């Protein structure tokens, strides 16, 4: 079998990339290829991250030297992540291995505008010299082509394993859920203002928040708005705890300002949950406005309120949107389907 080396953040890191990697490593790919893994980044203090970064580079060098790696599949996110991966790319180029860079960045294009001319030129050169760049959506393919017109680009959306569904029980109060990095980019504090308005107007709702980030600011804002009793902060949740939360969720909300293709939306739709989100990044290719959920402009709090309140009042539409979303995930964003796409890409390098 051919040898594939994955370089990415640890599968224990909090974030969407680790979820994607775990899905691929558990798929049929591991039976078709010898899969090796190097963690380039971990959560923790800066000194631990620095040590892990150095250890990852050394481990990569040893893997390339001793294991005859055929393809190196590098996963990266936004600016800092890409700059870390630049060091790995330089090492891999010393060997005959093919290089695939899998771009997961959400705010990358916004950050790109602040790059120096030197870094923009370097970025163009890197993308165009890679054997393949994988992006999560057609919109991100267009973004990368603007930076590097000659880059070889393929689109493979994020994907997940499908949960088994049970009949959803009627909940009171109605359950809203947000999963993701707590901060301005994900629209967390916009959502809190809308939840306050919903409560002030007599809607019986409870907001569940799962994620890491600006926790102190979140708790302070809850007290300031007077909605602490109607909001549950769950911390960073995964596996069984996430499964239980999504099974009781009525509406999933992610009012982001920048995204790639959020795993949290894929997860929500796989549980047949209607989604209210924004028309940024790859989201419009995932959420069909008026069929599986609603798309609004980022920062439009009035629209966010109207869409959520409409779904609260219309149980049948919630069910219809949820079922259509689940079907879309089954047919397009199933990990088995996308691991097969990835396998064909790997095979193309050997033919």
Summarize the topology:
Layout: E1 3-9, H1 16-25, H2 29-32, E2 34-41, H3 46-66, E3 71-76, H4 79-92, E4 98-103, H5 108-112, H6 117-129, E5 132-135, H7 138-147, E6 153-155, E7 174-179, H8 188-200, E8 205-210, H9 215-225, E9 231-235, H10 239-248, E10 251-254, H11 263-270, E11 275-278, E12 293-296, H12 301-313, H13 315-332, H14 335-348
Parallel strand pairs: 1-2, 1-3, 3-4, 4-5, 5-6, 7-8, 7-10, 8-9, 10-11, 11-12
Helix pairs in contact: 3-4, 8-9, 8-12
Account of the 3D structure:
The protein is of the alpha/beta class. The protein folds into two domains: 3-160 and 334-348, Rossmann fold; 174-332, Rossmann fold (3-Layer(aba) Sandwich). The chain is 47% helix and 18% strand. It has 14 helices and twelve strands. The strands form two sheets. A six-stranded parallel beta sheet has the order 2-1-3-4-5-6, with helices on both faces. Strands 9-8-7-10-11-12 form a six-stranded parallel beta sheet, with helices on both faces. The chain is globular, with a radius of gyration of 21 Å.
């Amino acid at each position: 079998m051919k040898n594939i080396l994955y370089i990415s953040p640890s599968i224990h890191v909090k974030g969407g990339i680790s979820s994607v990697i775990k899905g691929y490593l558990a798929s049929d790919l591991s039976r078709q290829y010898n899969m090796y893994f190097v963690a380039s980044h971990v959560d923790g203090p800066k000194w631990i991250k620095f040590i892990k970064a150095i250890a990852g580079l050394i481990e990569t060098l040893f893997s390339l030297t001793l294991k005859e790696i055929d393809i190196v599949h590098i996963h990266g996110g936004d600016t800092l992540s890409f700059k870390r991966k630049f060091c790995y790319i330089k090492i891999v180029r010393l060997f005959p291995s093919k290089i695939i860079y899998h771009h997961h960045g959400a705010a990358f294009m916004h950050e790109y505008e602040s790059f120096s001319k030197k870094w923009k030129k370097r970025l163009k050169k890197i993308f165009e010299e890679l054997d393949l760049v994988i992006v999560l959506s057609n919109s991100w393919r267009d973004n990368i082509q603007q930076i590097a017109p000659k880059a070889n680009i393929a689109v493979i959306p994020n994907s997940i394993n499908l949960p088994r569904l049970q009949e959803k029980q009627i909940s009171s109060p109605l359950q809203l859920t947000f999963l993701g990095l707590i901060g301005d980019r994900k629209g967390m504090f916009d959502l809190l203002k809308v939840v306050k308005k919903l409560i002030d107007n007599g809607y019986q709702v409870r907001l569940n928040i799962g994620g890491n980030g600006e926790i102190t600011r979140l708790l302070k804002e809850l007290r300031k708005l007077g909605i602490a009793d109607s909001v549950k902060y769950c911390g960073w949740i995964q596996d069984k705890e996430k499964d239980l939360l999504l099974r009781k969720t009525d509406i999933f909300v992610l009012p982001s300002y920048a995204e790639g293709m959020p795993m949290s939306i894929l997860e929500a739709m796989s549980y047949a949950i209607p989604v209210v989100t924004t028309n940024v990044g790859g989201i419009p290719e995932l959420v069909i406005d008026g069929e599986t959920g609603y798309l609004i402009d980022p920062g439009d709090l009035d629209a966010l309120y109207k869409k959520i309140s409409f779904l609260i009042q219309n149980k049948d539409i919630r069910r219809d949107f949820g079922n259509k979303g689940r079907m879309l995930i089954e047919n397009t964003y199933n990990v088995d389907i996308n691991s097969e796409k990835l396998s064909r890409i790997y095979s193309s390098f050997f033919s």
